[in-house]
Design a protein that fits this description.
The protein has a seven-stranded mixed beta sheet, sandwiched between helices. It has a single domain, classed as 3-Layer(aba) Sandwich (Rossmann fold). Helices cover 43% and strands 20% of the residues.
């Protein structure tokens, strides 16, 4: 059957757009981290909401939906007494939550953005929690070093997903888990599944959590808009709203219309 030229063009356009946006979003991510002088932004994920209300300490309530995303992902297996690596830890909110609430032996956060790592080292003082600067495609750790690797809303910016998955496999101990959650355009979901199928880790759970992410975006919209108004120069408001997934942005609409999905996987190393 001949290939539909319009469809072929569409696939090529989205692939090129992704390559162009990846370095742009890396710079934007660094810039957002630089704006927050009062340490108000320690999470940069879209959040998770359902009918259950997670019990949180008062100081964590402002970040409820972002924390609930981490809880849904990280609390899917028992982390007590385990060595955890979070790849793409950002400003450290998720790693801090895991260290303070889920009783692991250790949590190591790594991120490509040095400014974020500098922030984490100064901001967090939690037993067993540490941070280092590094690349997800070349993790600076020995083989078989961690019981669990966590990666939340970060991999869509990576230039080589297969290489990243190979690094995850390498640093995991036998029997260890990879807890993975991220968004993908609808035309890239099959590609992601193929990458996961071929990475030598066994998929033991997969879930589409887009409705929960949309609900969290709606519930957190007012707070995000307030932060943008206070922290970001006005000429950058539109771009920042898109980055944050606020209502009426193309990103928010793409979730609602099914053009993007938010996926969650548990994988295990034999």
């Amino acid at each position: 059957m001949p290939v539909n030229p319009v469809r072929k063009f569409g696939r090529s356009f989205f692939a090129c757009r992704a390559k162009l946006l990846n370095p742009f979003w890396e710079v934007w991510y660094w810039y957002i981290s630089s704006l927050d002088k009062d340490k108000e932004v320690i999470f940069l994920n879209y959040g998770y909401a359902d009918h259950n209300k997670l019990e949180l300490k008062k100081e964590d309530e402002n970040n409820r939906y972002s924390i609930q995303l981490y809880n849904h992902i990280a609390n899917s297996i028992r982390l007590e007494g385990l060595d955890i690596l979070e790849v793409g830890c950002g400003r450290g909110g998720g790693a801090s939550y895991i260290a303070r609430y889920l009783a692991p032996k250790s949590v190591k956060g790594i991120d490509l953005c040095k400014k974020s790592i500098d922030f984490c080292k100064k901001h967090y003082h939690v037993k067993g929690l540490s941070f280092c600067h590094g690349n997800a495609l070349s993790l600076p750790f020995m083989d078989n070093n961690f019981n669990v690797v966590i990666n939340v809303e970060s991999s869509h910016r990576y230039s080589d997903m297969e290489r990243f998955l190979g690094e995850v496999y390498r640093v995991l101990r036998p029997g260890g888990y990879f807890l993975f959650a991220d968004l993908r355009d609808e035309e890239l979901i099959k590609s992601l599944r193929k990458q996961l199928d071929n990475c030598r880790l066994k998929i033991i759970k997969e879930e589409i959590i887009t409705p929960n992410v949309i609900k969290a975006l709606v519930l957190a919209n007012e707070k995000r808009m307030d932060l943008i108004e206070r922290l970001v120069p006005r000429f950058l408001h539109g771009l920042t709203k898109e980055f944050a997934g606020t209502k009426e942005t193309a990103l928010h609409k793409s979730f609602v219309r099914g053009k993007k999905e938010y996926l969650y996987y548990i994988l295990q190393k034999d």
